[in-house]
Amino acid sequence: MRRPQHPTRSPQPDDTVEYAEGPRASARADAARRRKYRRRRIGVAFAVVAVLVIAAGGIYVATLFARVSDNIAANIVERPDGAAVEIPDWNGPVNLLIMGSDTRADLTSGTYGDDDVEGSRSDTLMLLHVNAAHTDATLVSIPRDTMTARPECTYPDGSTSDAQDVAQINGAFDVGPFCTLDTVREMTGIDVDHFVVVNFDGFIDITNAVGGVDVCLAEPVSDPDSQLFLEAGPHTIQGAEALAFVRTRYGIGDGSDLGRIHTQQVYLSALARKVKSAGTLANPVALFNLADAATRSIQVDSGLSDTSTLVGLASTLATVDLGNMTLLQMPAEDYPEDTNRVQPSPEAETLWAALRADQPVRLGVSDAVVPEPGDDAADGGEGEADGGETTTAPETDATPATDPAVTLGPDVRGQTADNATCAGG
Known about the structure:
Shape: globular
CATH superfamily: LCP protein
Low-confidence stretches: 1-47, 54-62, 107-121, 366-402
Helix content: 25-40%
CATH topology: Aminopeptidase
CATH architecture: 3-Layer(aba) Sandwich
Distance between the termini: 41 Å
CATH class: Alpha Beta
Radius of gyration: 20 Å
Number of helices: 11
Structural class: alpha/beta
Strand order of the largest sheet: 1-14-9-2-3-4-15-20
């Protein structure tokens, strides 16, 4: 499918949306500025929770068809330019855009930073690719401060926004989720036609429904902005504490948005392990709560409006082994005009080309794995168990020799979902 071609124009002063310090911001930012940017969004965790939960509950979701259908029916987004949105059959490769909205409209679970924030942005933006065999999945987190071309877009009222040669990617969502969808298609060349949008509500219910998520901290955290106060080491977090964990920015690592993406990937990997565990899948009450909470907190395009379509999506994800589920950050470099922003690096095109060709993606180096008690790696030696050097995955029936995996360079940060890693490491 060809991506739509649009005329471009030079960016105007108001084209770049300024909402936060850039990804290279210092962790020592003064307190006043930290309060100003406290409203930075929950990020990766909010946006992918619903997809993981729906995948886990796919087998059971038929028993609560009516409830889920009602939840989804209230949150369908039609394409404002009137173009048809096809209903997917999920045969072959799957491409899905997952967005986390920072809108304050109609929230009921509480307050999230500055309540007077107007408009909406996709401060979480992830591209999910599942290969045609449904044996490998790649989840790419796109930094919210990525600068890229934006096509002409249509507002819900039918008016249009001009194409831009360059704009901050998270601002496209203020036009609408289809504008973000088209922008990602333009940037990646990948035929992604469907999306899921998740807001703040429902996150606490979801984490409570799975009985908490096991995470690890490489360093203690004391962050009054997100209200997260935890010692270094392993923790089981849920509810408001889980919310604080995925929101914290200055409390862990270097205080950048890229650092926070890593923290959120630690959480998401742990969540995936918990959701796909036998205990969760075998518990009808837990699955009911998960499916209900997830579908209450999402919006979908009209092509995903039927519950059976989401069940089909669930089946594509349920077959992916955690070791073949790769979470990574989009390869990025400083944006020349503003080093507080980023742009896709040359290696990003290697990634996009691999996904367009439906090739599995592997990381050159993984983050450190938390050794289990009695593990041979507990003494801190390097090797597979402690997350030292990682090699390209051996070929199996799921990775035929005619479709080899593409291994990204060591600077691309990420992990597979079966790796238990520590945030802040």
